[in-house]
Amino acid sequence: MTHPLFAAGLLAFAATTATADGFDQIKTDAGRALFDKECHRCHADTSTDPSYGPTLVGVIGRPAGSIEGYDYSEALAVSGIVWTRPALRAWMADNTGFMPGTRMRHVGISDATVQDFILAYLASLDTE
């Protein structure tokens, strides 16, 4: 779990060093650092690198359980969920509560600022 002061410090740094145009890039860069800390041990942020979990390139807007060749839990494979920002927020906060039966261990990223940064980074992966 990320300490709330870490996220607040990142946001304060971003607010004092960025122009309006540069703020999105700073959020994305902070999101990359948080992704590396919270998500990268299981998920790739490229479409070519193998990982334990499915790649998160293009995850926003993608139907859950839809990457061919990945062995999803039955619960996720038949869920009908599309990974929208609100769905990803709910997943980050409490994936086992959001999707009972998932095989993924509990994530527990409840800090909205940390979620914002990670979502900014995930959105940047759609352009790969």
Describe the structure.
The two termini are 28 Å apart. The protein is mostly helical. The chain is globular. It has a single domain, classed as Cytochrome Bc1 Complex, Chain D, domain 2. The longest helix is centred in the first third of the chain and has 19 residues, at 20-38. 50% of the residues lie in helices and 0% in strands. It has five helices and no strands. The model has no long low-confidence stretch (mean pLDDT 86).
Descriptors:
mainly alpha; about 50% helix; about 130 residues; Cytochrome Bc1 Complex, Chain D, domain 2
Sequence-ordered SSE layout with sheet pairings:
Layout: H1 4-17, H2 20-38, H3 74-77, H4 85-98, H5 112-124
CATH superfamily: Cytochrome c-like domain
Q: Structural class of the secondary elements? A: mainly alpha
Instruction: Report the radius of gyration as a whole number of Å.
Output: 15 Å
Number of domains: 1
- Name the helix and strand elements from N-terminus to C-terminus, one letter apiece: HHHHH
Approximately what portion of the residues adopt beta-strand conformation?
A: under 5%
CATH class: Mainly Alpha
Mean pLDDT: 86
Anisotropy-based shape: globular
Cα distance spanning the termini? 28 Å
Ranges with pLDDT <50 over ≥5 residues?
Answer: none
CATH topology description: Cytochrome Bc1 Complex, Chain D, domain 2
Number of extended strands = 0
Largest sheet: none
Helix content: 40-55%
Tell me briefly what this model is:
This protein has five helices and no strands. The protein is an all-alpha fold and 128 residues long. The mean pLDDT is 86.
